[in-house]
Amino acid sequence: MSTTATEALPATTLLRFATAGSVDDGKSTLVGRLLHDSKSVLADQLEAVERASASRGQDAPDLALLTDGLRAEREQGITIDVAYRYFATPRRRFILADTPGHVQYTRNMVTGASTAELTVILVDARNGVVEQTRRHAAIAALLRVPHVVLAVNKMDLVGHREEVFAAIAEEFTAYATDLGVPDVTAIPISALAGDNVVEPSANMDWYGGPTVLEHLETVPVSHDLAHCHARLPVQYVIRPRTAEHPDYRGYAGQIAAGTFRVGEEVTVLPSGRTTRIAGIDLLGRPVEAAWTTQSVTVLLEDDLDVSRGDLIVPTKDAPPTTQDVEATVCHVADAPLTVGHRVLLKHGTRTVKAIVKDIPSRLTLDDLSLHPHPGQLVANDIGRVKIRTAEPLPVDSYADSRRTGSFILIDPHDGTTLTAGMVGESFASPEPVTDGSDDDGWDF
Predict the structure, then answer these.
(1) What span, in angstroms and rounded, lies between the C-alpha atoms of 245 and 242?
(2) Are 72 and 83 in contact (CB under 8 A)?
(3) Is 249 exposed, middle or buried (0-12, 13-18, 19+ CB in 10 A)?
(4) Rounded to whole angstroms, how far apart are CA atoms 277 and 203?
(5) CA 184, chain centre distance (Å)
(6) Could you tell me if 329 and 419 are in contact, meaning their C-beta atoms sit under 8 angstroms apart?
(7) pLDDT tens profile 108-143
C-alpha cells in the first residue's frame, strides 16, 4: 500500500467537511473506510490495525480502529475535541473534521462544522432519525453549511431494503428543509462492507445515485471569497524600529474575506477614522493586492491609532458598529447561560466585556418550535440571545460572512468558552418580543 496519497497530484480543489452521528452509528468505520480505500493510510498503521483486529479474533481489519485512538484520548480528558484528518484522491483534496458522537460532545460539532462546506450525518438504518440526528441537522443549518449528506448506514442489517432507506431519507429531508438546509443528498451505505462508500453496491441495485466518495469528489464548492465584504482583523502591530526600518508601522493579520488593494480608501473600526492603504507586504515582499486567507501586513498613509482588535474595512463597504448584538447561539458549556450573565465576547481579534441582556427563545428540536423566554440555556441548547457590549463592535450578519458574523462568549473568571454565536437572523429567529423593561441598572 502506498504511504502517501498526494504524490504527483494535479492541481485540485479542496473540500472541508465534517462527520457527525450518534453513538454506534458507524462513523468511525465510515471514516476508516474512506481513509483506507483512498489509500490514505500508512502501511505501518494498517499493519497495526490488522494485528489488533486479529488479536480480537476478527478475520478482516476493523477500520474503526484507525480513528478510535483519538476518541479514547478525548474520553480520558485530553483536550482534542475534534480530530482533523487529511486525505486526497486524484480529483480533490479533503480536510475531514471527525466530531464525536456522544450527546455531551455535541458542542464539538460546532467547532468541526464551523469552517465546513459539507457535513456527513450518519443514521443507523435500524433506528432512523433520532434526537441526535435532528440536533446535528440543526447545527449544520445554524452554521449555514451549504451541503449535507445523509448517510443511512448499516443497510446490510435491514436486508438492504429500499423502503427503509426511502422512509428515513424522506423524514430527514423534510426536517432539514424546514431548517433551511439548501442541499441534502441521501446515500444508503454499509460502512463495514464498503457498500456505496467508495464503490457502488451490488446489494442495492435499486439505488442509482453517487457513492459517498464520488459525491465528495464532485459536489460544487466555492472558495471565491475575494468578492465578499473585505475585512482585515488586526492581530499585531509591527514596529521594527531598526536602522533599516526606523519608521515602519504595519498592521498584521489574516484577511477574513474580500480583497484589499494599495491606494484603496479604508476605515478603521470601531474608531471610524479613514485613510488609504499605502502598501501591502506579503511574505516580506510588497504586493499591489491581497485577498482572503492571506496573512499580510498593511501600511496606512496616515498615522492612526490602530491596535490589536481593530478591523480594517473598505470605506465604501463598512459594517455598522453596535453595542447591542442579537444572535442565534449554541451553548457549549456545562454551566448554564442566564439572563444577566456577565461574559467576555470575542469577535475576530477583539475581546470586550458584555452582559446577556435577554434570552428571547430556545429551540425545541422535535418540532422546531420556540420556547419563549426560557431564562437560561444549558449545554447543547440552541436559542436566541440579546447581548450588550461595553464597547461598539463592527459585526456583519452571519448570513453575509461566516468569519466576521460569528463570535464566542467566554467566562471572564476562568477563560472557559461558554457559547458560540451567529449574528443576525436564522431558522431559530423568534417573533419580535415586546420587553417592557428599560435599561436601568446596566453598567453600559
Answers:
(1) 5
(2) no
(3) middle
(4) 62
(5) 17
(6) yes
(7) 778 778 888 999 999 999 999 998 898 889 888 888
Give the bridge partners for 84, in sequence order.
Answer: 97
DSSP secondary structure string, 271-320? Answer: TTEEEEEEEEEETTEEESEEETT-EEEEEESS-----TT-EEEEGGGPPP
Residue type, 82: V
Query: For residue 75, what pLDDT is reported?
Result: 44
Using CB atoms within 10 Å of the CB of residue 211, give its burial: 0 to 12 exposed, 13 to 18 middle, 19+ buried: buried
Q: How confident is the model at residue 298 (pLDDT cuts 50, 70, 90)?
A: very high
Count CA atoms closer than 13 A to 262's CA, side-chain side: 12
Nearest to 292 by CA among 277, 305, 282, 302: 282
Element (H, E) at 231: none
How would DSSP label each residue in 415-440? --EEEEEEES--TTPPPPPP----ST
Phi, psi of 47 (to 5 degrees): -65, -40
CB 5 within 8 A of CB 107: no
> Residue 192 corresponds to which cell in the numbers above?
463495514
- Match 505501518 to its residue by C-alpha cell: 44
CA distance 336 to 341: 9
Q: Provide the pLDDT for residue 102.
A: 65
Q: Is the peptide bond before 336 cis (omega within 30 degrees of 0)?
A: no
Report the C-alpha gap between 424 and 250 in whole angstroms: 32
- According to DSSP, residue 233 is labeled E
231, pLDDT greater than 70: yes
Bin 45: left if φ > 0, else alpha if -120 < ψ < 50, else beta: alpha
